[in-house]
Specification:
Elements (H helix, E strand, L loop, with lengths): L32 H25 L6 H17 L6 H30 L6 H43 L1
Helix pairs in contact: 1-2, 1-3, 2-3, 3-4
């Protein structure tokens, strides 16, 4: 069992103190071509499967977990061919794959409505609508990022309280 402990400032900060996370001087790669290509390929595969399922059954599934699992599998295969990877690359690949599948679900439920209304959108319009929906989603989430970091700090304190009580 490890005797490693986090610094006291990880649990409680005194007024005026600032928490500095443990850093071993490493700067692992995150946004790499390998992660982007793997994420896009998995997004295409699962986006197509999710779209087919949505059109056939009228509902979709969350693809985050399958994409995450296959990202790990793909990166293990990369390892077998001598390409090193890190956890941040796998996270980026999974995020890209999951987000592109979500965009496919958004398109799945909006584009058929245009056909029901008697409109016949061209492929350029469908592509523009898809890209616009994805960009709007990203642009809405950017200002909300601070709220999530505050929530993470609250969760860190709750988890600490839980671990102390167990």
């Amino acid at each position: 069992m490890s005797t490693y402990k986090l610094p006291k400032t990880a649990y409680e900060l005194q007024p005026g103190e600032q928490y500095t996370p443990l850093d071993r001087g490493e700067h692992p790669a995150e946004f790499t071509i390998k992660a982007i290509i793997a994420g896009i390929l998995l997004g295409i595969i699962f986006g197509a499967a999710n779209t087919y399922l949505g059109l056939k059954a009228g509902l979709t599934i969350s693809t985050s977990i399958p994409v995450a699992v296959l990202t790990v599998v793909a990166f293990r295969l990369f390892n077998a061919f001598g390409l090193q990877h890190g956890i941040l690359e796998a996270n980026m690949s999974q995020t890209i794959g999951s987000a592109s599948s979500s965009v496919a679900s958004g398109v799945l439920f909006t584009i058929p409505a245009l056909f029901i209304w008697g409109m016949n959108p061209e492929w350029r319009q469908i592509t523009l609508l898809s890209i616009s929906g994805g960009l709007i989603g990203v642009l809405i989430m950017i200002p909300r990022g601070y709220e999530y970091f505050v929530t993470i700090d609250i969760m860190r304190k709750l988890l600490k309280a839980f671990s102390d009580s167990v």
